[in-house]
Specification:
mainly alpha; Helix Hairpins; 2 domains; 8 helices; 3 strands; rod-shaped
């Protein structure tokens, strides 16, 4: 059995009212969910950084160990050259061994210099690692606190969220699939989650753009479902929403201005 356009608009408005209440309850949680998500991302980044620094420290320590082994090897060579010098037979052999001993000594000096440089690098890396670990622990504590706070708020509103969520799903399931998809798509694209907007003072209640008189007449006729030419929201008239234009007119200017600024930011 075909459903009239007026009935479809009424169903869409009903779903929008339920989802708006759902959004208001979620808004009570403020920015906590985003703060928790940001902290989780930051912790992952810090853990990755700690891991990379640990690898760098390990590399420096291995290089220092290698240089120390090099020094030992050259020291053994020097000891060997000293033994050979005790049994020297001619000046040419003396000069050759002495030269080799000097080269080994220079290699030791070079290795010792490199060890000192690596030691300074190691100290810096360890300092950075300590600061990063401290920051990581601090962020983990912040995350635990925020999660506990979020869990408490969710628990307080769990019943309401569950009830409204079930109502929304049930109401959405009664719509024809094409309309349900359109409603969900528009809602997902709107920052305030409003996909069905009332006509208020001749303007779209979502983006506050003026609606031409002929278009308003078509909307009131319920001949077809009409959307806002500017923001794409589905438009419904007073007979569907029950919103009194006179009451809307008395709405404080500051509130209306705030809503308009929100709509502009959304666009």
């Amino acid at each position: 059995m075909d459903v009239s356009i007026e009935k479809k608009l009424q169903d869409l408005w009903k779903i929008q009212q339920i989802d708006s209440k759902l959004d208001n309850v979620r808004a009570l949680m403020g920015e906590l969910p985003m703060e928790v998500a940001d902290l989780e991302d930051e912790i992952v980044g810090l853990e990755t950084r700690v891991s990379h620094i640990a690898e760098e420290i390990k590399g420096i320590e291995e290089e220092i160990s290698a240089k120390k082994i090099t020094i030992k090897d050259f020291q053994k060579q020097i000891d060997k050259y000293d033994d050979q010098l005790n049994n020297i037979k001619n000046s040419r052999e003396f000069e050759a061994i002495t030269k080799e001993k000097e080269i080994a000594g220079l290699e030791i000096l070079s290795a010792e210099k490199k060890i000192r440089e690596l030691g300074k690098m190691l100290d810096v890396k360890v300092e950075i690692q300590t600061a990063t670990k401290d920051g990581l622990e601090s962020r983990k504590k912040d995350l635990d606190y925020k999660k506990a706070e979020l869990t408490e708020i969710e628990k307080e509103n769990e019943e309401e969220l569950t009830r409204l969520g079930a109502e929304s799903e049930k109401a959405l399931s009664t719509l024809e699939k094409r309309l349900a998809r359109a409603y969900s798509r528009i809602r997902a694209n709107m920052r305030n989650g409003v996909s069905v907007a009332p006509i208020i003072r001749g303007s779209c209640g979502g983006c506050f753009s003026k609606i031409p008189p002929q278009r308003q007449s078509d909307i009131r006729a319920h001949f077809r479902i009409i959307d806002c030419e500017h923001c794409g929201r589905i438009l419904v008239d007073q007979s569907v929403t029950g919103i009194d234009a006179a009451v809307a007119e008395k709405e404080p200017r500051t509130t209306r201005r705030k809503m308009k600024l929100t709509a502009k930011a959304e666009d």
